[in-house]
Amino acid sequence: xxxxxxxxxxxxxxxxxxxxxxxxxxxxxxxxxxxxxxxxxxxxxxxxxxxxxxxxxxxxxxxxxxxxxxxxxxxxxxxxxxxxxxxxxxxxxxxxxxxxxxxxxxxxxxxxxxxxxxxxxxxxxxxxxxxxxxxxxxxxxxxxxxxxxxxxxxxxxxxxxxxxxxxxxxxxxxxxxxxxxxxxxxx
Length: 187
Description:
It contains eleven helices and no strands. By secondary structure, the chain is mostly helical. The protein is globular, with a radius of gyration of 19 Å. Helices cover 57% and strands 0% of the residues. It folds into two domains: 7-100, Fumarate Reductase Iron-sulfur Protein, Chain B, domain 2, CATH 1.10.1060.10; 108-182, no CATH class.
């Protein structure tokens, strides 16, 4: 029996390939991406499963998955891929597409973390871990989470309550604005 892929199935894979500029069809499911992923045990689908779901055109399952939101973009998967598939870039593309199309993460704190992280980069030009932790804990109503370890790190001089702004933060903000315009958010 010969199966033919319907247009929606083909279109989802082509859309992801086009948006990410990565040919998702070169993935042949060797599993090296999954074997190297440091947070695979927390994901709802492994990286190679996400690749296969995209190839099969299972848009709903992919965009409703927690996996793209948990991806740390460490690029271990990309480095390990024998075919040079930039899986980290695909995960980033999936996060962008999911938000653009109104898909909600099953774990809303992941989206909050992502937003706080990106706003910190935009405003300060770099990640400031203390700021990230404090704002995240406030927004998720976990007011005293990490307080004990934070105090110990502060007392040892490992973290600071303030950070120096880097030069070029205006350029960083410009990059973010162009990205928002490109995504149609126009903010």
